[in-house]
Design goal:
mainly alpha; two-stranded antiparallel sheet
Length: about 300
């Protein structure tokens, strides 16, 4: 499993380097500092789980991986931009991300805002200019990513997350919050991998359900790691959720019940993979990894 994950991580990293160089090249001479900051925030030690999910689905459906590279880059750029903005003083005010100073600490707050903005727009430019994609497929990918990362997805979830700090919310409200903040983009990663398949419309509901389950399991594990992890392994400050008085699954359910809930989500997700008839041991292993990861 690790070999396959490393292969997908290396693939998207190379594609990101290539795309950043190509699309930012006209800016390099006039604005070298912005280009360097975009590279810094993008080409770091990210787990690249969302691109890996896109590649895994495409591979299971027999779609050539070079037709997924732009989608893999796009979703990672959206994820990376969200982290750059999440870390800002006005949001979570973190000074460590993926084991290195956050973008606004390394550069400054204004640069970090603009880096996140640039990453977001680059994601859609890369998709729209990929000559390997049919226009109808590129349009569907752009539509999926727009919805998943916008007010009906990730950003909507981030707003709910901020509004819930210091408040007592129900388990159902927390599920909805994280379904938007984390789950929408993971769901999108699965769908991006399938768009070019003739089976797309048939398997879309199953992939949406799978993404919902994986997204929730991912977030529950994040909440657990904030308690049980350590800053060096996590690559970000341990205990930050507690410090910000965020609503988390361990806080609402208790630590052991949160772990049991995570495991039930993973079990249900693996059943969905079987129902989809995906011949992808890696996808099943990746789902397990999401719940077992230490960072």
């Amino acid at each position: 499993m690790q070999t396959q994950l490393t292969f997908f991580q290396d693939r998207v990293n190379q594609a990101l380097i290539k795309n950043l160089s190509y699309f930012c090249k006209p800016q390099i001479n006039s604005n070298q500092s912005l280009f360097e900051a975009i590279q810094y925030a993008t080409l770091n030690q990210g787990k690249r789980l969302r691109p890996a999910l896109s590649y895994a689905v495409a591979d299971a459906l027999g779609i050539p991986l070079n037709q997924i590279d732009s989608a893999a880059c796009a979703i990672e750029l959206i994820h990376s931009y969200s982290l750059v903005h999440d870390d800002l003083p006005a949001m979570d005010n973190d000074d460590l991300r993926r084991g290195q100073p956050t973008c606004h600490i390394k550069y400054d707050e204004a640069t970090a805002i603009l880096v996140g903005d640039a990453q977001q727009t680059l994601a859609f430019q890369i998709l729209s200019e990929d000559s390997l994609l049919q226009a109808k497929h590129a349009l569907e990918m752009i539509s999926l990513l727009s919805k998943a990362s916008g007010p009906l997805g990730m950003i909507g979830g981030q707003v709910l997350d901020i509004e819930s700090e210091g408040k007592s919310i129900s388990t159902e409200q927390l599920k909805n919050l994280h379904g938007l903040k984390t789950g929408a983009l993971i769901q999108c990663a699965l769908l991006l991998g399938a768009v070019q398949s003739e089976q797309y419309q048939q398997i879309k509901p199953g992939l949406q359900k799978l993404g919902e389950l994986i997204g929730l399991a991912f977030q529950v594990q994040d909440d657990i790691l904030d308690i049980e992890g350590n800053t060096e392994t996590l690559g970000k400050p341990q205990g930050s959720d507690l410090q910000l008085d965020k609503s988390t699954y361990p806080k609402l359910l208790g630590l052991e019940q949160a772990k049991a809930y995570r495991d039930s989500l993973i079990s249900e997700a693996k059943n969905i993979v079987k129902e989809l008839n995906f011949n992808s041991p890696f996808l099943t292993q990746l789902i397990d990894y999401i719940a077992q990861r230490k960072h």
